[in-house]
Write a structure and sequence with these properties.
It is built from seven helices and seven strands, in the order E-H-E-H-E-H-E-H-E-H-E-H-H-E. It has 257 residues and is of the alpha/beta class. It has two domains: 204 residues, NAD(P)-binding Rossmann-like Domain (Rossmann fold); 35 residues. Helix 1 runs parallel beside helix 2, helix 3 packs parallel to helix 4 and helix 4 runs parallel beside helix 5. The protein binds NADPH dihydro-nicotinamide-adenine-dinucleotide phosphate.
């Protein structure tokens, strides 16, 4: 299948590790040039160098905090006109509604929603100049099936999904497609680190399996590549009639239709 991503340029927030890095590799394997965004510039630069060498594409890092307006401005200024935007930066939370303070709600709103708003405002004009583009939002199954311990995550990811749908309507006439992917359990270094903290070096694999068993469906974590391949397809011309939709990549965890 020819994805026709060669010589396109993509901005990937959170493209320096985990799912975002796997998306970067999937796009680079198709010849797409990359800007990898993360706060830790040295990690981004190391991965950009590695990917450029491995896949023969142009790849560079932009050190920026996309939870801030200034960070988004820095990304927009450094990237210039691009074809593909992957809003992937994000992180889980842990709180109760009774106890979480406004500042925590505000931080996750800025990270999960305002980053996507600000980057769309800054990067869509360049996509229009190029004659079109693709935007993918990485939300979560939690956007529609909440986990009890992370109300702020659930709520802000649901808002991101609605933002994605609304943006899709606004730019549909500009040949820009906008979609959301909702992953389930994806085995990233962060999951492994947390599992080791909870269950120790000997018990972490059993702990992760218990998490997967509780989710049901395939009862396993996805590899980041299993989400990344889907995202690369959505960015490609092969998905030319797909816009304004949300796609689940969750191994059957979602309990509703
Ligand atoms: P990781 O924690 O492995 O990586 C997060 C990435 O985002 C890093 O590159 C990090 O770089 C970057 N990042 C975090 N905060 C910011 C910020 N303020 N500004 C710029 N970059 C930032 O995450 P995952 O790969 O696990 O998750 C990626 C996305 O997928 C998230 O949105 C998450 O909610 C979603 N998701 C993950 C699932 C999972 O099971 N892993 C399941 C469902 C959804 P740095 O720290 O250097 O800034």
């Amino acid at each position: 299948m020819e994805l026709n991503l060669s010589n396109k340029t993509a901005v990937i927030t959170g493209g320096t590790v985990g799912i975002g890095l796997a998306i970067a590799e999937a796009l680079a394997a198709e010849g797409c040039n990359l800007f990898l965004i993360g706060r830790d510039g040295s990690r981004g630069e190391a991965e950009a160098r590695r990917i450029a060498g491995q896949f023969g594409v142009k790849a560079s890092a932009i050190a920026a905090d996309v939870a801030t307006a200034a960070g988004c401005e820095a990304v927009i200024a450094a990237a210039g006109d691009i074809d593909i935007l992957i809003n992937n930066a994000g992180t889980g939370s842990n709180e109760t509604i009774a106890e979480a303070e406004d500042a925590k709600w505000q931080y996750y709103w800025d990270l999960h929603v305002m980053a996507a708003v600000r980057l769309a405002r800054g990067l869509v004009p360049g996509m229009k100049r190029r004659g079109g583009g693709a935007i993918v939002h990485n939300a979560s199954i939690c956007a529609v099936q909440p986990l009890w311990y992370e109300p702020i995550y659930n709520t802000t990811k649901a808002a991101l999904m609605m933002f994605s749908k609304t943006l899709a309507n606004e730019v549909v006439g500009d040949n820009i497609r906008v979609n959301t992917v909702n992953p389930g359990l994806v085995l990233t270094p962060d999951w492994i680190k947390t599992a080791k903290q909870i269950a120790g070096e000997d018990g972490y694999e059993a702990h992760l399996q218990a998490v997967a068993d509780e989710a049901g469906g395939m009862k396993r974590f996805a590899a980041p590549e299993e989400v990344a391949r889907f995202v690369a397809f959505l960015c490609s011309d092969m998905a030319s009639y797909s816009t304004g939709s949300t796609y689940f990549v969750d191994g059957g965890w979602l309990k509703t239709v």
